[in-house]
Amino acid sequence: QLQASGGGLVQAGASLRLSCSASGRTSALQVLAWFRQGPGKEREFVAGTRRSGGTTSYAGSVKGRFTMSRDNARNTVYLQMTSLKPEDTAVYYCAAALLNRPSGLWSRRQEYDYWGQGTQVTVSS
């Protein structure tokens, strides 16, 4: 259902854009999000948005540096990452929810019905 791509190895301060393509019943998807899981850490929320548009929510650690966008015609969401830091090193996952939950719940992993396979982002110092 979800296919993430665009990860790689970059130096601190660089930029990278991740993509997540959805297939199948994409019109049923209500909330789309990015999560990440760093080495030895739990999976954490990065950014989320509604497929219909409106508010985009970001984790405090990435606010001002990352931008999430969507292209419904291509059934794709993007995560533009700038000013990358070594602490951004993680496997990045895209996720999708069938229910239109309030944005305050978007950080909860259990809200999501579909997960992509993850793409590795490594930021060297």
Indicate the topology.
Elements: E1 2-5, E2 8-11, E3 16-22, E4 31-37, E5 44-50, E6 56-58, E7 66-71, E8 76-81, E9 90-97, E10 114-115, E11 119-124
Parallel strand pairs: 2-11
Antiparallel strand pairs: 1-3, 3-8, 4-5, 4-9, 5-6, 7-8, 9-10, 9-11
Summed up:
The protein has 125 residues and is mostly beta strands.
Biggest sheet descriptor: 7 strands, mixed
Class by alpha and beta content: mainly beta
- The total of helices stands at 0
Average residue-wise pLDDT? 96
Question: Could you estimate the helical fraction of the residues in percent?
Answer: under 10%
Question: What is the number of strand segments?
Answer: 11
What's the overall geometry? globular
| Rg, nearest Å | 13 Å
Q: Calculate the terminal CA-CA distance, rounded to whole Å.
A: 34 Å
DSSP strand content:
over 45%
Output the helix-strand order: EEEEEEEEEEE
Low-confidence stretches: none
